[in-house]
């Protein structure tokens, strides 16, 4: 098992309040799988991702990555931070750096910039249709192009796990669909394990092998949906047109409505 999460809970403590963001979440992700955390705003999706990324130490529970505990009694989780690549809603490209400098940033920071890794990153940039923009600055690119550059920066360090925190939500519909297709195809090609955080049911179905549905705060795992093989094998655009898509959408929609209506 690539990632095992067991009885994870997290409470944020401030001077005056205690906010329980996650309660008793257990799940696992296999190597090469693409899973989504789906749930309404505030259900703890980002908290869960931040724990997996080694950025927040959970109040309770364990997370094992390839059998190694991420958090053990106060030790930090540097190993996980090295193994994980993040792609967020905002591209966080540095505006004063060129696209080439931006995509090589992770390699520079981790001390893994070599002629080979640089060549690989530039080849990936060309592969996703951005060959020729190496010397441009982010402000000279469209939002979709910037997110594609962010994807290359994320993949350049060859992370074991990709954490995608609503990376498509700030884009217009057409750009979003194209980028979903590109991310899905690229991750398949490189056989990457990925976790997507989203509140978009269609996106979760189109991209994932499995969907973990979380309840409103505190986030609990209420249901796991395994995407049927015939949908799972389709790239996102084809999956959206598949006859099995709509019935699955309806049943997840219903489940989310029931959750939100629950007292
Ligand atoms: N640093 C913090 N201190 C206190 N409470 C926090 C902190 N970060 C998050 N929370 C609270 O924990 C809960 C879960 O937040 P989280 O950002 O993980 O949810 P989410 O599902 O990702 O939400 P969204 O979809 O809106 O981004 C929310 O009620 C939020 O207000």
UniProtKB/TrEMBL annotation:
CDD domains hit by this protein: ABC_NrtD_SsuB_transporters (cd03293)
One family name in Pfam for this protein: ABC_tran
Alphabetic keyword roster: ATP-binding, Nucleotide-binding, Transport
Entries under InterPro entries matching the protein: AAA+_ATPase, ABC_transporter-like_ATP-bd, ABC_transporter-like_CS, ABC_transporter_ATP-bind, P-loop_NTPase
Gene3D superfamilies per the UniProt record, alphabetical: P-loop containing nucleotide triphosphate hydrolases (3.40.50.300)
A GO term, aspect molecular function: ATP binding
PANTHER family in alphabetical order: ABC TRANSPORTER ATP-BINDING PROTEIN (PTHR42788:SF21), TAURINE IMPORT ATP-BINDING PROTEIN-RELATED (PTHR42788)
Name of the protein described by the UniProt record: Spermidine/putrescine ABC transporter ATP-binding protein
């Amino acid at each position: 098992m690539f990632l095992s999460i067991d009885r994870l809970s997290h409470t944020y403590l401030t001077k005056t309040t205690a906010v329980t963001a996650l309660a008793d979440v257990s799940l696992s992700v296999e190597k090469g799988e693409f899973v989504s955390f789906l749930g309404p705003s505030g259900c703890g999706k980002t908290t869960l991702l931040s724990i997996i990324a080694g950025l927040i130490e959970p109040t309770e529970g364990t997370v094992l990555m390839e059998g190694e505990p991420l958090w053990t009694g106060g030790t930090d989780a540097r190993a996980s931070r090295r193994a994980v690549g993040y792609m967020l809603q905002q591209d966080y490209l540095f505006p004063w750096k060129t696209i080439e400098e931006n995509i090589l940033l992770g390699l520079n920071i981790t001390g893994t910039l070599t002629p080979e890794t640089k060549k690989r990153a530039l080849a990936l940039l060309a592969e996703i249709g951005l060959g020729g923009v190496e010397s441009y600055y982010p402000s000279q690119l469209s939002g979709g192009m910037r997110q594609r550059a962010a994807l290359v920066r994320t993949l350049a360090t060859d992370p074991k796990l990709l954490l995608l925190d609503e990376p498509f939500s700030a884009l217009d519909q057409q750009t979003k669909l194209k980028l979903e297709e590109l991310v899905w195809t690229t991750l398949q090609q490189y056989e990457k394990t990925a976790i997507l955080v989203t509140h978009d049911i269609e996106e979760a179905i189109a991209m994932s092998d499995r969907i973990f549905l979380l309840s409103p705060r505190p986030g609990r795992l209420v249901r796991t949906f395994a995407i049927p093989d015939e949908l799972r094998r389709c790239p996102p655009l084809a999956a959206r047109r598949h006859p099995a898509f709509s019935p699955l959408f309806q049943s997840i929609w219903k489940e989310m409505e029931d959750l939100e209506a629950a007292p």
